[in-house]
Amino acid sequence: QVQLVESGGGLVQFGGSLRLSCAASGSIFSIGTMGWHRHVPGKERELVATITSSGATNYADSVKGRFTISRDNAQNTMALQMNSLKPGDTAVYYCSARVRRNSYESGMDYWGKGTLVTVSS
User: Which DSSP state fits 9?
Assistant: First the structure.
């Protein structure tokens, strides 16, 4: 049993900042790559950022220079610091993680239920 829970979403004005968090819990042996996606109704889900277990990061062009992804391997948590927010950043943000539940099998992907970020103009 593995669960991912996002938190930190809310309403923010143009140019403001928010920090999203993702906490993984349950039967966890190790966590590989973690990431954030976002979704707006009527549009395809978009990859926002990823971070490997060793800390290597990757960002969508639309958020480079504004968002920073990080993780705490000891606590099985991940964060997304979002600065200089724009109305186009409005979306439901989802946390994901590649999780190994034991040492005998490869990891599987798990997803949180999402947290809403709304940026007003």
Answer: -
